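Chain and conformation:
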Amino acid sequence: MNHPTSLWKANISNQTALWQRMGCEALSIKGEGWLQSLSWPYKLWPESGKTALTIRDLVEAQPHLHARTRVPFWSQNEVTLPWQQQMPPVSSEQILMYQGLQDQPQTPRQQNPKGIRLNSVQTPSQLYAWWQICEQAFAYEIDIQVIQHLARQADLLLLLAEKDNEAVGTAILFTTGQVAGLHQLGVAQAAQGQGVARAMMHQLLAIAGECRAQWMTLQASSKGLGLYEQLGFSRQGVVRNYSPKNTELA
């Protein structure tokens, strides 16, 4: 799987598969199949990844959406489609990125000059630290019960970064097919600006290779975009998230 369109779809599929693991319900909206988060991350997305509906259609069909609901619309190669220009203001936006793991240098995980260690979350105290840091790093509320549920998934890695026995970072690594999707990479405020995210990324790439994935995918915010590009990740599209509650119907 090395065709750009296939990799783009694989990135989206990995992301939506993780949302499903977090808990969702199936809906039929104007004849289309949709999935809706039961709590955080408060997503409402088309089951096929494609839709002919607009935000206005969704508001009319689902008037009682949660105030924090966000609807993602994906565009390959960061193109803004004509109908998207008529959308309400974007709530948030991330760049879809990927990198081939087969070209990564085989660096032993233990070689880490920053002294950062990535460990799977195993204990309640580790899970609580993960939850606190991730909320702090992303500046939004996270349902801790969702994190508890993810920690029990055998094919998903909930990872806590530690330095000098202090928790300093979070990450989720979720493998689907040949893709290892990276999610919720966050650094505690007190540890930011110290190269923690870069040190974590080197280990995450090694772990993904150990999981026999061929590609790593992620969705980068503007804050993390520079680091990912420095590490060799390529852009492949954009996901724009819209809030139906910000849509005014005439």
Observations:
- The CA atoms of residues 76 and 208 lie 24 Å apart.
- The longest helix spans residues 4-21.
